[in-house]
Design brief:
Blueprint: E1 3-6, E2 9-16, E3 21-25, H1 39-42, E4 47-51, H2 68-82, E5 87-92, H3 94-105, E6 110-116, H4 130-139, H5 144-150, H6 152-155, H7 158-163, H8 165-175, H9 182-194, E7 208-213, H10 222-230, E8 235-239, H11 246-249, H12 252-263, E9 280-281
Parallel strand pairs: 3-4, 3-5, 5-6, 6-7, 7-8
Antiparallel strand pairs: 1-2, 2-4, 2-9
Helix pairs in contact: 2-3
């Protein structure tokens, strides 16, 4: 299994598919397996590079708090290990905060940027409702499995809960393979709370797509408007029947992401490349 290091932090990563590189940066508590719905879509046309953030999955557990900026350096270490000088960068939730820092701190490494369920943080952030904050405060007293199921109403959109419960079962099953323990969750939550790029967003040079579910109660949709206004030339795509995990609620979302990234790829796929089966690589 491929590992690399950023200083003392050991990071697990994988690669699948061929073509222009896309680095997927996972959200809080999310591992490689959490991208189960996204990877097959992008791997038709791209080399998809995924990894486990520090404190999750097969990567190192930390003894001390850390910042989103340090996690951005982890992401760059993954690009180095994969031999990619420049790549598209796609982050969701916590991963989208990391992606912002990568684009600001390492602009030469980012070809195009996708920010999913994202926020600028700081004073400009639109905070969750009291109901959501109360849930997260209580979740620390639950088992990991109990917390996953209790979070269903705030994680997935109403249509998914009514009509596509199979997606929820599949998603929780993938995430349950590497559950985030309470202390690890607290460290990642602290990194999110300290995130603030509002005054630096105008430094982002990469073509940017901001993606958000209109039913997101964790990171409210108004946060997407802030990002789209502050990042030069950014495009905004919202999905009316999607919540925080829009990649599960709206299967078309990643199809749109793929089209955006193809438009900003230096090399176009061959005519039948998008229909090719992804090929595992290490």
């Amino acid at each position: 299994m491929p590992f690399t290091r950023n200083g003392t932090v050991k990071l697990y990563w994988e690669s699948v598919g061929q073509g222009p590189a896309v680095l997927l940066i996972p959200g809080r508590g999310m591992t490689v397996e959490g991208w189960w719905a996204t990877i097959p879509v992008l791997a038709r046309s791209f080399r998809v590079i995924t990894f486990d953030n520090r404190d999750t999955g097969r990567s190192s557990r930390m003894a001390w708090p850390y910042s989103v900026a340090q996690m951005a350096d982890d992401a760059v270490a993954i690009l180095d290990a994969a031999g990619e000088q420049r790549a598209h960068v796609y982050g969701i939730s916590l991963g989208s905060l990391v992606a912002q820092e990568v684009a600001i701190r390492h602009p030469d490494r980012v070809q195009a940027l996708v920010l999913g369920s994202s926020s600028a943080g700081g004073f400009a952030a639109y905070m969750p409702t009291q109901f959501v904050e109360t849930f997260f405060a209580r979740a620390g007293g639950m088992t990991v499995e109990e917390a996953d199921w209790a979070a269903v109403p705030i994680t997935y959109a109403e249509r998914t809960r009514r009509l596509h419960s199979e997606r929820i079962f599949a998603d929780i099953a993938h995430r349950a393979s590497s559950p985030l323990q309470p202390i690890e969750s607290l460290r990642q939550a602290a990194a999110v709370a300290a995130h603030d790029t509002y005054d630096r967003l105008n430094r982002i040079e990469a073509p940017t797509l901001v993606v958000h579910g209109e039913q997101d109660v964790v990171v409210r949709p108004a946060n997407a408007l802030v990002l789209a206004e502050k990042i030069p030339g950014a495009q905004l795509q919202t999905w009316p029947d999607a919540g925080h995990l829009y990649i599960i609620d709206e299967p078309q979302a990643d199809e749109e992401v793929a089209r955006f990234l193809l438009r900003h790829s230096a090399v176009s796929p061959a005519p039948d490349f998008a229909r090719a089966s992804p090929e595992k690589a290490v």
